[in-house]
Amino acid sequence: MTGSEELIKEKKTIIEARNVNVFYGHFQALKDINIIMKENTVTAFIGPSGCGKSTFLRCFNRMNDYIEQFHIKGEILIDQKKIYWKSVAVEELRKEVGMVFQKPNPFPKSIFENVAYGLKIHGVKDKNFIEERVVKSLKDVALWDEVKDDLKKSALALSGGQQQRLCIARTLAVEPKIILMDEPTSALDPISTAKIEELLFDLKQKYTIVIVTHNMQQAARISDKTAFFYMGDLVEYDDTKTIFTNPKQEKTQNYITGRFG
Amino acid sequence: MKNMTNAQKNKLIDNAFKVFGIACTFFGLIILAILIFNIVEVGLSRIDWDFIKDLPSRRAQKAGIYTALMGTVWILFLTAIIAFPIGVGAGIYLEEYGKKTKWASLLEINIANLAGVPSIIYGLLGLEIFVRIFGLGGSLLAGSLTLSLLILPIIIVSTREALKAVPSSIKDASVALGASKWQTIWNQTLPASIGGVLTGVILAISRAIGETAPLIVVGALAYVPFAPSSPMDEFTVMPIQIFNWVSRPQHEFAVNAAAAIIILLLFTFMMNGVAVYYRNKWQKKIKW
Q1: For a designed S-S bond to A95, which of A148, B159, B178, B222 qualifies (C-beta 3.0 to 4.6 A apart)?
Q2: Range A2-256 classified under CATH 3.40.50.300
């Protein structure tokens, strides 16, 4: 295990937060967060509801921009670029930083159109290219065999687990570097959840994944690094193994053993 | 009552309310049925091809509704092309772009209030602005602009309701893929809500073609010898023609009025039918 931890250290930094403070009006949701995430790793954010982990996740693709009275201090760097810089095109940023939501949210369109949508809005017109990419993305999420004959069927006809994999495929189609996942399996049954967890292992080879989860076992199973948030503080951030076997903070210990939260 | 159990009492009250509800429903329906029956009885035999294609006349037997019908069709068409883009555009702006400031909520309250302003007031507004200041005179254009003003609040409110019904998760998904606001509205929000938007527009326009008062004020005439051929022409519409005939003392004109009412009713029923059809079709298509 130490070998892989060494490997992570050598990897390139892809996300970096420096003294990030987030406010909703007068309420401070995140307090002075500093964190570094490496390329091709899975980082899990854990913590009780309202601890700020989802807010933090949504800072990386600026999905919080639409929330009234939201403001952020400090810096977030993705690929060494400050993403809250004025000249940053949010649309371009989101092409690099994809997101999968808590509840599967396919568009009320065909399966094909769902996956092709991202490419189309980014101006891709080449039909062959779009088709190839749709097929590849569906294969990458292991959905291809299940839907290859019904690509024209409405995505809403799929099961919840299939819909969520479709949503991941939709995100993959634009080839982001980072995929943010906000409790992606909390609305799914155990079998669908297992499939998505399996998927994460494969995706890690090509993408950097940040996942918010309420499920301790899930965090322990799938992530390389774990960050524990509590009341807007980043209490502890370490290798997942360390967090779950030998946490340095008492709060972390209490949380992962289920004493609160 | 005394020796009844509680459950029996509840059941009695339940049934009593059910009967009351049925009575309420039928009250409106029966009145409407009597009205329609009455009109059809008087007017149906008067409707023939000549009645539709004849110009107005002082002699009731020779008078037709051609000019009024054409006026209504023109008004319908012009009002639709004026009010649809403006109303839907304003609805989209208010719902999707407008920040939720105090100014915005003030605007919102005022639009809701505008929907309740008596139509004659819109007529006076149209008279001053379109007829006099813009110098459009008593033309079709002035009339449709006035009616557009009248139905804009309805279109705006119904557009907003339709947009609001689209789950934000769909918008989030689109935006998170890097779509701009406009791309999200055009590719996701509008297609998902177009049924509701169209329903609102059609209902608003079918209200517009039944309006009389504002058009009388802007100068729609009771007697126009020829059907209009351009937006700048003088015009009359069905409700005004009906009003004119009803106010004549001769019985023959009352028959004409009844016949014209049947045609106007058919018109509005048809439009409402289209609206209902679209709404149902849409509800079936999308289940969130």
Answers
A1: B178
A2: yes
Lowest mean pLDDT among A41-50, B42-51, B173-182: B42-51
Distance between A108 CA and the closest CA of chain B, angstroms:
7
- Residue pair A178/A96 in contact (Cβ under 8 Å)? The answer is yes
Nearest residue, CB atoms, A101 vs list B172, B188, B192: B172
The rounded distance, in Å, linking the Cα atoms of A23 and A16 is 19
- Residues contacting B198, CB < 8 A, separation 6+: B275, B278
Residue A194 CA to chain centroid, in angstroms?
A: 17
Per residue in A12-52, pLDDT (tens digit) is: 899 999 999 999 999 999 999 999 999 999 999 999 988 99
What is the chain A residue with the closest CA to B193? A108
Record the pTM.
0.82
Does A62 reach chain B within 8 Å, measured CB to CB? no
Burial B130-150 (b: 16+ CB within 10 A, else e): bbeeeebebbbbbbbbbbbbb
**Interface residue A98 vs chain B (CB under 8 A):** yes
Angle at the Cα of A155 from the Cα atoms of B199 and A177, rounded to 5 degrees: 115
A144 near B CB under 8 A: no
Q: Which residues of B touch A121 (CB under 8 A)?
A: 174, 177-180, 183, 187
B211-235 pLDDT per residue, tens: 888 888 888 776 777 788 888 888 8
Helical H runs in chain B? 6-43, 49-53, 66-92, 102-114, 119-126, 140-164, 168-176, 181-184, 190-208, 213-218, 238-246, 251-285
Domain boundary assignment for chain A: 2-256
Radius of gyration of chain B (CA): 24
Portion of chain B with pLDDT greater than 70, in percent: 97
Average pLDDT over residues B95-118: 85
pLDDT, position A128: 94
Q: CB–CB of B177 and A121 under 8 A?
A: yes
Spatial CA neighbour of A95 closest among A165, A200, A43, A173: A173
